[in-house]
Amino acid sequence: MYNLLQVFVIKSSAIVMEALPFILLGSLVSSLIHVYVSEETVVKSVPDGVFRQIVSGIFLALFIPSCECGIVPIVRRLNAKGVPAPMSAAYMIASPVINPVVMIATYAGFKGSAEMTLMRVFISILAAFAVGFLFSRLKDPFYAVKTETHSHGCSCGCHGGRGFKNVISHAKDDFVQTLAYLITGAFFAGAFHVLMPESVINSIGGHGAAAVAVMMVFAVLLSVCSEADSFVASSFVRFSPASMLAFVNFGPIFDLKLVFMYRAVMSNRTMTKMVLTAAALVYAVCLLLDYAGFGV
Question: Given pLDDT bands bounded at 50, 70 and 90, which one contains residue 102?
């Protein structure tokens, strides 16, 4: 019993510690956007048309990279500044994969496989388009972030205006809120590690529809950050390369920690529609790749 409790504590705390730097970075970026980027500037830079907005959201991932652990506060602020939902959604899906750090980590995690790295990026782009178009059809898919009001006589720097104090104040608020959701998700992910050890996971490996589905479920339950998930996926040597792609593509979109973190920016109904859309696309593409003998 003590050993199981020890594993639970280690796994849960590891998830939190792994995500903390990225949540902090995401909170700082979101705060800088809130303080120094005006609504007018954002609105002027947003292209017309859903397709162009989604493409812009995907390219934004290269300029404001973030793994899924830090994406929620950034999306909240972008949305508050007037970035349309399709663009925010595409950025939210693409950023955990289409950023330089994760692409290098993917290449290394899959032992120098450019094929696995490029295919992961390709599937992520498809998922970003699918979710972006979905959000273009939904009415107010993201929660509205209230704009703070303040007295012009206030000089504390905590409610309005520009400056270091204001950046830190907003970053702190975003960090604390996101951290609460992260800890809840890490608790459940740690429990899964106790109930389902890796030796059992590896024993279920294989090819075909079941393997792809199983790896997607594992991605949700293991809740590994996108900067490390390729190393975990490649360790499942009994699984096909296509099912490994399902793991590294679906995990950054949806896992146990994200279940709770997404609730800070969208309703359960919206989250369900997004997850089902992304899951169907990732599953279908990876299953086709598996049947085509990808990576074998």
Answer: confident
